[in-house]
Design a protein that fits this description.
The protein is an alpha/beta fold. The protein has helices at residues 8-14, 41-48, 63-76, 87-96, 113-125, 139-143, 167-174, 237-240, 251-254, 262-275, 281-292, 294-313, 326-331, 357-364, 394-400, 416-430; strands at 80-84, 104-108, 129-133, 149-155, 181-184, 201-205, 219-223, 318-322, 346-351, 369-370, 380-382, 406-410. It has two domains: 8-289, Type I PLP-dependent aspartate aminotransferase-like (Major domain) (Aspartate Aminotransferase, domain 2, 3-Layer(aba) Sandwich), CATH 3.40.640; 295-430, Alpha-Beta Complex (Aspartate Aminotransferase, domain 1), CATH 3.90.1150.10. 36% of the residues lie in helices and 13% in strands. The strands form two sheets. It has a seven-stranded mixed beta sheet with strand order 1-7-6-5-4-2-3, with helices on both faces. Strands 8-9-12-11-10 form a five-stranded mixed beta sheet, with helices on one face. It starts with 7 loop residues before the first helix and ends with a helix. The model is unreliable at 332-338 (pLDDT under 50). The structure holds pyridoxal-5'-phosphate (PLP). Residues 86-88, 91, 112, 114-115, 155, 159, 184, 186-187, 205, 207, 217, 219, 374 line the site of pyridoxal-5'-phosphate (PLP). Residues 86-88, 91, 112, 114-115, 155, 159, 184, 186-187, 205, 207, 217, 219, 374 line the site of pyridoxal-5'-phosphate.
Length: 433
């Protein structure tokens, strides 16, 4: 970008790319290549030794994905980013980059069902314990902490329960002990920048609002560059002990000359190298397309969701509506400074009536798609108890707060009159037992 801008509307169009020097092409090209020609043996050796950053092999880095990484790091106010094959890969890498067998992290109970399963089962099977804490009581994170705790983890606007996470409070508990807060910001891009409230790492499923059109699966890990990995060496061994897989590199020291990007570099050159969950360049191109209109789309998602809430408030079939202000929730700042008062595009509500009311509502929808997704340009709805959270044990379902009458909407970009008309007839159907 010729002139650095702090405005999201400009960043999403300009950061990381200004016309192809060879052809003058304005849109970023799709570099559909596996490998890259080294200039000579010295160049190749420097790249492998991290004396110089550059392209080696698309499992590790790709120029199209690189533009997306730079753009998303700029948008979040972070130092560096890493594109990945899915949001799930980003969540897994976020933890595996700092915890190994025998370690633990403390996570909020309010999680997307897939992340819950990853944490409660797969990471556990790999020897990484995830302890769950109640975000309504930030001090519960401190109580769950011990010498082996390597990170705290949460979602800004948790999918599906939409209880905004107190980022500033929990980040402030962890930092003096050398514990970084990892925030999954998938449901709240533009609305919230977790680094401003003390988070150290941000995770995205770019599958959602970033892509915005429901075409591609991807993930992103963003390093805030704001965390001192050296300050508590015993707390962060993976950053302070020699890494035998990289000729003894100590990650808090090894890449100092490249900026405060130790976390992002380690995730790329160790985890991506070994586990291989790379984003495809074609998907990176799709995400770049989506990102260009993200600020515009978020404004309309929020505007339509506000109108849906006004409509639901007048309906007797609905008992509780969950539609919190993200900005007020994370840091108690004045909501009117933000887009739509900081309210997002997701709306949750509880239906009155018997335990089948949620299913009847979903089955009656005609415009809304019934899918396990959020952040599409189309309106989407889901009944978590029978889908994303159905594989959880009864105990885990209770912990995530998902009930049979709970429905979550991801309000799309259609005309508001059509959205409301569809909800109107589906609510009527939900009441017919
Ligand atoms: N994080 C959140 C908040 C999600 O909603 C999802 C998917 O629904 C994921 C992570 C996982 O992302 P992906 O489906 O891209 O693997």
């Amino acid at each position: 970008m010729a002139r650095k801008s702090l405005h999201p509307e400009t960043i999403v169009l300009h950061a990381g790319w200004r016309a192809d020097p060879a052809t003058g092409a304005v849109a970023p090209p799709i570099y559909q290549t596996t490998s890259y020609q080294f200039r000579d043996t010295e160049h190749a050796a420097n790249l492998f030794a991290l004396k110089e950053l550059g392209n080696i092999y698309t499992r590790l880095q790709n120029p199209t994905t690189g533009i997306l990484e730079e753009r998303m790091a700029a948008l979040e106010g972070g130092a560096a980013a890493l594109g990945l094959a899915s949001g799930q890969a980003a969540s897994a890498f976020a933890v595996q980059n700092l915890a190994r067998a025998g370690d633990n992290i403390v996570s909020s109970t309010d999680l997307y069902g897939g992340t819950w399963n990853l944490f409660a089962n797969s990471l556990k099977n790999m020897g990484i314990e995830v302890r769950f804490a109640d975000p309504a009581d930030p001090e519960s994170f401190r109580r769950a902490t011990d010498d082996k705790t390597r990170a705290y983890y949460a979602e800004t606007l948790p999918n599906p329960k939409l209880r905004v996470f107190p980022i500033a409070e929990v980040a402030a508990i962890g930092r003096p002990m050398g514990i970084p807060l990892i925030m999954d910001n998938t449901a709240a891009p533009i609305l919230c920048r977790p680094f401003e409230h003390g988070a150290a790492v941000v995770v995205y499923s770019t599958t959602k609002y970033i892509g915005g059109h429901g075409t591609s699966i991807g993930g992103m890990l963003i390093d805030g560059g704001n965390f001192d990995w050296e300050a508590h060496p015993e707390r962060q061994p993976l950053f302070n002990l020699p890494d035998p897989s990289y000729h003894g590199a100590v990650w808090s020291q090894a890449v100092k000359g490249l900026g405060p990007i130790a976390y992002a570099i380690r995730a790329r050159v160790v985890l991506l190298r070994d586990l291989g969950a790379a984003m495809s360049p074609f998907n990176a191109f799709q995400f770049l397309q989506g990102l260009e209109t993200l600020p515009l789309r978020m404004a309309r998602h929020c505007q339509n969701a506000n109108a849906v809430v006004d409509f639901l408030k007048c309906r007797s079939e609905v008992s509780t509506i969950i539609y919190p202000s993200v900005q007020q929730g994370v840091s108690r700042v004045r909501a009117d400074r933000y887009l739509s008062g900081g309210y997002g595009g997701l709306v949750g509500f509880e239906l009155n009536g018997d335990s089948e009311a949620g299913r009847r509502f979903i089955d009656a929808l005609q415009l809304f798609y019934h899918v396990a997704n959020i952040g599409d340009s189309r309106s989407l709805a889901i009944h978590p108890a029978s889908t994303t959270h159905s594989q959880l044990s009864a105990e885990d379902q209770t912990a995530t707060g998902v009930t049979k009458g709970y429905v979550r909407l991801s309000v799309g970009l259609e005309h508001i009159d059509d959205i409301v008309e569809d909800l109107d007839q589906a609510l009527a159907a939900s009441a017919r037992s």
